[in-house]
């Protein structure tokens, strides 16, 4: 089992001092925040609704992303953590702890993924999504 907790954070965004982080809790108080949430939901832009939605072609996964995809479930099973950021941090540490030979497997998978992506979408550019 995992013994990973961020040294500066306690549950639900509280700093070790017990003072909530300003980005998490507004200065004006909780009631005003609830009022804000109810009335300030973003309205969809009418222009976007009329446009036909093009399917987004994502760029191919790199070696580290392929490693994360494969190992995430294992880390979640080993740890009691559910926060994505903490899991990503553990995966990053484990990735850097791998030998070059162990990482090579994922670099080869990433190379194959890029080749397949180039065959499927020959004129594709990452800029197409922006």
TrEMBL record:
This is TCF7 factor. Residues 57-125 bind DNA. InterPro entries: HMG_box_dom, HMG_box_dom_sf, TCF/LEF. Residues 57-125 form the HMG box domain. One of its GO terms (molecular function) is DNA-binding transcription factor activity, RNA polymerase II-specific. It is found in: Nucleus. GO terms for cellular component: beta-catenin-TCF complex; chromatin. Keywords: Activator, DNA-binding, Nucleus, Transcription, Transcription regulation, Wnt signaling pathway. Residues 29-54 have a biased composition (Basic and acidic residues). It holds the Pfam family HMG_box. CDD domains: HMG-box_TCF7-like. GO terms for biological process: canonical Wnt signaling pathway. Belongs to the TCF/LEF family. PROSITE patterns: HMG_BOX_2. Residues 12-55 are annotated as: Disordered. SUPFAM superfamilies: HMG-box. PANTHER family: TRANSCRIPTION FACTOR 7, TRANSCRIPTION FACTOR 7 FAMILY MEMBER. The keyword Protein biosynthesis does not apply.
